[in-house]
Design brief:
Blueprint lengths: L9 H17 L3 H7 L4 E10 L5 E10 L7 E8 L4 H17 L5 E8 L7 H14 L9 E5 L5 H15 L23 H16 L8 E5 L3 H12 L3 E7 L2 E4 L6 H11 L9 E3 L1 H4 L6 E4 L18 E3 L8 H9 L3 E3 L1 H4 L2 H15 L5 H26 L3 H20 L4
Parallel strand pairs: 3-4, 3-5, 6-7, 6-10, 10-11, 11-12
Antiparallel strand pairs: 1-2, 2-4, 7-8, 8-9
Helix pairs in contact: 1-3, 1-14, 3-14, 4-5, 6-7, 6-12, 6-13, 12-13, 13-14
Amino acid sequence: MTDNSEFDSHLYRTALAQLDRVAARLTLDRDIHERLRYPRRALVVSIPIRMDDGSTNIFIGYRVHHNTVLGPTKGGLRYDLGVNLGEVTALAMLMSWKCALMGLPYGGAKGGVRCDPRALSTRELENLTRRYTAEIILLIGPDLDIPAPDLGTDEQTMAWMMDTYSMTQGKSVPGVVTGKPLIVGGSAGRREATGRGIVYVLYQATRRLGHELRSRKVIVQGFGNVGAVAARLLWREGCTIVGVSDIKGGIWNPDGLDVRQLEAHVTEAGGVGGYPGADPISNVDLITQPCDILIPAAIGSQIREDNADRVKASIVAEGANGPTTPEADALLRERGVTVIPDILANAGGVVVSYFEWVQGLQYYFWRESEITSRLQEVMTRAFNRVWTLANKEGTDLRTAALMEGIRRVAEGYRVRGLYP
């Protein structure tokens, strides 16, 4: 086994531990297992940016391709102060399993720039995005690697990336990124896709557990693009949203929140804090309040060994990547909590990104009703495969989802062989 210390991080160690555990369960070929533990390529770039005050700052950026065995790579781009090579490599690996699990013709990738996007002006963010795109341009393309928005990035970021790439090609290339604005080749339903996918798998999970989704009490940690959409759709389904939070803190009302009024308040106030008719609560305390369904849709490692025994939800649907540590995962499993893992629960985004990519290549765009119908079909089919495998193997949903995703990637390696 080769040394992999250059990728070392908590998240990478967790991803490797998951891979190694599942590889043993699958009795994976040793050589293929070893290939899966490393990214195919990793690029580290320095990004000099002229700031608004005339000074020049250097930011560090990354783009990692975990594997290309099933097709071009796919994965988000994040702007965050915690970005490092190990984190990006781990997230690229998880994207490999996610894409394979959903049956998409992609390998996993991830990118990031170590910065605080909230501290940068719009002009500085544009300059950062365009120079980062120029630095990684040898790795991206509609048939090479297709970035998408992630933590700290959005539709505008993708529009800047697409324009920068297109200028170097002398023509418009909408297929180089997904998650773009509609006016430049984005897809209807992409913005809501991750949150909508969470609702689809929750519908299947509650049905399998003998409940109705309607009337379930729900807590959403992270009232951003993913969490807010999930909360709104669940509220419309008849669920009671009893608590939500954002980066500044949360609010709690056991009798329920009016999500429509809450969204209007967030638009005006810039956050959930101060919403009338609800009590303030910290992010730490919110996830341990009474509810039926908990959706951690903020950042990683929010459910940990020190609070997992106080989580009162019977279902945890992971809207964020890696919100549950391995130690907490074991505790929840022992307590009989159903955890719908991130590579399944939040896969709606990459599924509709695939739809957007296909539409961009064809220059033919679908109606939103077609998008949501196809998304529901893909999410439902994936959930049912994972549920069936979990029951067959006598294991939890996370292990079953990883088994399915890793098995598919490994089979691709086996069939294609090793060059030269």
